[in-house]
Every structure is written in C-alpha cells, then in structure tokens.
Specification:
The longest helix is centred in the N-terminal third of the chain and has 22 residues, at 95-116. The chain contains 15 helices and 23 strands. The protein has a 7-stranded mixed β-sheet, sandwiched between helices. With 475 residues, the protein is an alpha/beta fold. It has 2 domains: 2-249 and 451-474, Aldehyde Dehydrogenase, Chain A, domain 1 (3-Layer(aba) Sandwich), CATH 3.40.605.10; 254-433, 3-Layer(aba) Sandwich (Aldehyde Dehydrogenase, Chain A, domain 2), CATH 3.40.309. Helix content is 41%, strand content 22%. The chain binds NADP nicotinamide-adenine-dinucleotide phosphate. NADP nicotinamide-adenine-dinucleotide phosphate is lined by residues 146-150, 155, 173, 175-177, 205-207, 210-211, 214, 225-227, 230, 233-234, 248-251, 282, 379, 381, 407, 447, 452.
C-alpha cells in the first residue's frame, strides 16, 4: 500500500506526527493509501519553504515562469491516462469523465495561466497634465490554497496555476479524501523543473492542517473552494489576520426549462447537469423547474433517460454513474432521500443504495415538493434532483432565486428576449442559456449570496493573487 508524504521544498517528507490515516477507494471500500495526518508544524515547514523560494521566483521573468508551467501542463497531459485512473480510484468517479473533464481541464488551467501572464498589462492615467498615475501589480508572497474532493486535480490546479504564474509561492491543502493526484502533481512539478519551495503540498485533515494554514501569519491570502459552512470557518480565521480571501462555496443551482425549449437538448443536457460525477459538481443543476405545459412530457422523458444510466465500476469505460466519494457522504445523501419522502415528495426514479460493495446510490428524481422544502433549500451534492412545475416567467425567476445560494443556473428557451431577461434576473454568478458547463477561462467565475465571495478566472485570478500599487508622478 502506498504511503503518501507531504511535498515541502521539493522533497517528499513524513509528517512531524508520524501519524497516518486511511485513504479508501469508495467503489471497493478497500484502503488504498496512508495519508499523512499533518499539523501546524508541517504547515510551518511548508510556509518556511515557500517564503525561502519567494524572492527568486517572484523576480524570475514571466517568460521563465510561463515556460515551467507549460512544461508541467505537458507532463500532466502525457500522464493523462494514469492520472484519470488514479482520480477514478480515489474519488469514485467514472474514468471516462476523469479522462474527458478533470485531467484535460487541469492541463488547460496550467496552459491558460502560463500564457495569460505574458499578456498582462497595467493601467496608466495622465491626470490633467499635472501627474502620471500608473498601476504596478506585485505578487502577494506565500498564499494558501484549499480545495475539495469532487474535482481534485482540476480544482487544485485552478488555484495553483494562477498563484504561481503570477509570482507567488504556495502551500496547497487538498481534500483529505482525495490526495492521490495532488501527490503525483508534486512529482510532476519536480520533473518540470519548478524550483523547490514554489509549490508545497500538505496533506491532512481540514480542521487541523487546513485550519493551521488559514491562521498562519506568513500566509498573505487564502483561496478556498469547499462547502459554505467550512467557508464561514475559513473566513472567521482569515479575516482578523487581514488575509486576502477568495471563497468558492456551495450551490443549489436552478435548471429552468420553458415550454418553447428544444426539449431533446434540454433533457440530454439536464441528464448530465443532474448526474455527472454522481451530482458531485458544485455547478450541477439540482433543482429542475419546468413550465407547466411541458412538465408531464419532461418528467416522463427525463425519468426514462435516467433509468438508462449505467451504474457500476468507475474503471469501466461504459460506466456513467460511479460511487459517491465516501461512506459519510453517501449516508448524508440517503438521509436527504428519506427527508424527501417525509416532506411529501414522490420518488419518480432511483431512491436507493445500490446492492453491491462501495458507496453507490441510484440516480434519484423527486417530484411533488415545493421550493420551501429542505430538500430544495439545502445542498445535497449527490445524484438527487427535484422537478417542480412553474406557471410563468415571474414564477420561474422567483423559484430560481428562492435559496440562499447563488452559484450558477441554466435556462432553456428559444425566446431570445426572455433568455436575456431571465438571465439578468437570476441571482447566480454564472447563467448558462441552452447549455451547461461550457467554460471560457477568461470569464469571471464565482458565486453570489452564500455561494461565495470574490471572483476567479482569467485576469480576475491574476488580480486576486497580486496586489495593485498606484504610483503618482508629478509632471
Ligand atoms: P469542505 O468539507 O468544505 O472541504 C473543503 C476543503 O476544506 C477540504 O480540503 C477540507 O479538508 C478543508 N477544510 C475543512 N475544514 C477546514 C477548516 N476548518 N479550515 C480550513 N480548511 C478546512 O468541502 P467538501 O465536502 O470537500 O467539498 C464539497 C463542497 O465544495 C460542496 O459544498 C461544493 O458545492 C463545494 N464546491 C464549490 C465549488 C465552487 O467553485 N464554488 C467547486 C467545487 C466544490 P478535509 O477534506 O480534510 O476536511
């Protein structure tokens, strides 16, 4: 069995505690690796290594940083199959999705930010012929990056790439539930020639290692992706220390289907937006709202398509639905299915744990619940969607906006004016019209309301990881 180590100063080192805990394959329930149970001492070492590497790395020409990040992207791409397999075993997701989504998007993140820094510009203002004001952007120093388990390498690279591209050094804390591809990233960073200390990775529990990172006085910023409750704890630790903070949090995303939509496309895409990655994507559309005149047809066809999804071994190319990430998470999701029944919902498909080893749940559709039910208010983060009818545009918008979350939404209509009107009225950081999960890395990404604070993506990420300074020269 593999024993993982922290990646500090370019070397793989054991945790101070010399304690480890189990990494479990969620599809087989077998222990596959021992994870370092790191604490504040390990975080101190990683921050010290990052501090030592900062002067040279931040002074290196953008072209040098770019070349090294592009090399790392190439190495991830060259090892795509192995990484997809590792991600599938560690997370429970189908290998075909890891191959198509997770790993290619990690490659794209490194390539995008490696080249974005070559095209950065800063502003200058000629002030009434009396002064010239210009803006300098400096990297922040050592930054802390904390990521969740659902898209392990992809979300970690979403933070590491802009952080180090713009001249920072970093300490990353991946989710304790999915450490394997992060561990491999350390090896690939060495192979790419990323200088020791620029990227450091500390494994362990969020409440211990993650908390130590958010409280560390030498960490200038925290970029966090995870649940809203944890985000609040992270903010409580980081804010009094005046750290720059980016929070990408949970969602309860609406998927609004008007009767004039292309139903074939809306249903096929909604199957993906409901059940891809077992519904464990923050952007999944877990609340489907359908205009009443199309409701019965939609439900009938959506249920039929859901029943065709193949649940099984994540390593089988033909599998659509793999295992949920952990036993605790599976129990939480099953609890919400029971709650749906208690709240008066009808289970139109699925609803049960699959009778086999591993943490598998059938893709589940609930009908008959109103927007104020807990099942439509709380993030479930599993293969469970609700379908609710609405009467008109006003009600569709009210239903979509009826939670404390505001991460993303999809809407389906052929009416162009309505598409723009409704997109503007929905309280969400991203609204997809007649599509889902199409990404352009140049656009701002983040949540409204309790789905997050700050925006990442494109130059927004480079801005987050740098500090702007104004220089005013009297003419
Ligand atoms: P989580 O429990 O909030 O954990 C996220 C990360 O924070 C993990 O690395 C975790 O470590 C760490 N952590 C836990 N407690 C901490 C603390 N007190 N201080 C510092 N770090 C701490 O979230 P999750 O269950 O892994 O991920 C699912 C959630 O992420 C969902 O709510 C989903 O919507 C959200 N998400 C949001 C986005 C987005 O872009 N908005 C993207 C993906 C996922 P451990 O794992 O070791 O506890």
């Amino acid at each position: 069995m593999q024993r993982l180590a922290n990646f500090i100063g370019g070397e793989f080192v054991a945790p101070h505690s010399d304690a480890y805990f189990d990494d479990v394959n969620p599809a087989t329930e077998e222990v596959i690796a021992a994870i370092p149970d790191s604490d504040g001492h390990d975080v101190d070492d990683a921050v010290a290594a990052a501090r030592a590497a900062f002067p040279a790395w931040s002074a290196a020409p953008a072209e040098t940083r770019s070349r090294l990040l592009l090399k790392l992207a190439d190495l991830i791409e060259a090892n795509l199959e192995e990484l997809a397999r590792t991600e599938s075993i560690d997370n429970g997701k189908s290998i075909s999705l890891a191959r198509r989504l997770d790993i290619p998007r990690a490659v794209a993140n490194f390539r995008f930010f490696a080249t974005a820094i070559l095209h950065q510009s800063s502003e200058a203002h000629h002030t009434d012929r009396t002064a010239l004001n210009y803006t300098l952007r400096h990297p922040l120093g050592v930054v802390g990056l904390i990521s969740p388990w659902n898209l392990p390498l992809y979300l970690l690279s979403w933070k590491i790439a802009p952080a180090i591209a713009s001249g920072n050094t970093c300490v990353a804390k991946p989710s304790e539930l999915t450490p394997l591809t992060a561990y491999r990233l350390g090896e690939l960073a060495n192979e790419a020639g990323i200088p020791p200390g620029v990227l450091n990775i500390v494994h362990g529990y969020g409440a211990k290692a993650g908390r130590a990172l958010t409280c560390h006085d030498d960490v200038a910023a925290i970029s966090f992706t995870g649940g809203t409750v944890t985000g609040s704890a992270v903010a409580a630790n980081a804010a009094p220390r005046f750290k720059k903070l980016s929070l990408e949090l949970g969602g309860k995303n609406a998927n609004v289907v008007f009767a004039d939509a292309d139903l074939d496309d809306a249903i096929a895409t909604s199957i993906r937006s409901s059940f891809w990655n077992q519904g464990e994507i923050c952007l999944c559309g877990s609340r489907i709202f359908v205009e009443r005149s199309a409701y019965d047809t939609f439900v009938e066809r959506f249920v039929a398509a859901t029943k065709k999804l193949r649940i099984g071994d994540p390593l089988d190319d033909a599998t659509d639905i793999g295992a949920l990430n952990s036993e605790a998470h599976m129990r939480k999701v099953l609890g919400y299915i029971e709650l749906a029944k208690e709240e008066g919902g009808t289970i139109a498909a699925g609803g049960k744990r699959v009778d086999r080893n591993g943490f598998f749940i059938e893709p589940t559709i609930v009908t008959g619940l109103s927007c104020d039910c807990r099942v439509l208010q709380e993030e479930i983060f599993g293969p469970v969607v609700t379908i609710t009818p609405f009467d008109d545009e006003r009600e569709a918008i009210a239903f979509a906006n009826s939670t404390r979350y505001g991460l993303s939404a999809s809407l389906w209509t052929r009416d162009l004016s309505r598409a723009h009107r409704v997109a503007a009225a929905i309280e969400a950081g991203t609204v997809w019209v007649n599509c889902w999960l199409l990404r352009d890395l140049r656009v701002p990404f983040g949540g409204m309301k309790e789905s997050g604070v700050g925006r990442e993506g494109g130059f927004e990420s480079l801005n987050f990881f740098t500090e702007a300074k104004n220089v005013c020269v009297k003419l």
